[in-house]
Amino acid sequence: MKNLIFMSLLFSSFCFAQNDLEEMRNEDQLLLSENGRNTFRLDIRQPFTLNKVYTCKKSDFNSQFSKAEFPGGEEVFVKQLKKYANAYLDRNSYSLNGTFYVSFDVDKDGKMKNIVVEPKVQNAEMFIVDLKFSLLRIKTLWKPAVCAGASVSSRVKLRLDFTTDFTDS
């Protein structure tokens, strides 16, 4: 009789173990579908556009003006921005598709200030904060715009084209 009870308990424990394994497999399948990954493609259009020069007369603007420049050229700036955007934009928090415009002032000292991201998109506050942070990580000073031999503040505008691809891993 003891053998019969022992065998029935042993058999029933294997049944419960089998049931637990099947439940775990179902949970793993659900987790596999959630382990997707977003990847960004960022295209930055060049040349950058000059939006506004704050203190330059029209007569000086036509003859004695040079726009703000990044040391090494726009390609170096684009490379650095892509590096920091890749590091600081959270791919899992938002999915981006479309064109965004980033404009900022280059002051007389060559520092970036007053960064603005447009268009304003609903629920994109964290993206805008992360993108601004990516820009501010670029520590190299710009060569400021020059008008009539003096450094002047100017505004630079960039076009950023984002494409997000989702891959299931």
TrEMBL record:
- Signal peptide coordinates: 1-17
Protein name in UniProt: TonB protein C-terminal
Source organism, top-level taxon: Bacteria
Keyword vocabulary terms for this entry: Signal
**The organism of origin for this protein:** Cloacibacterium rupense
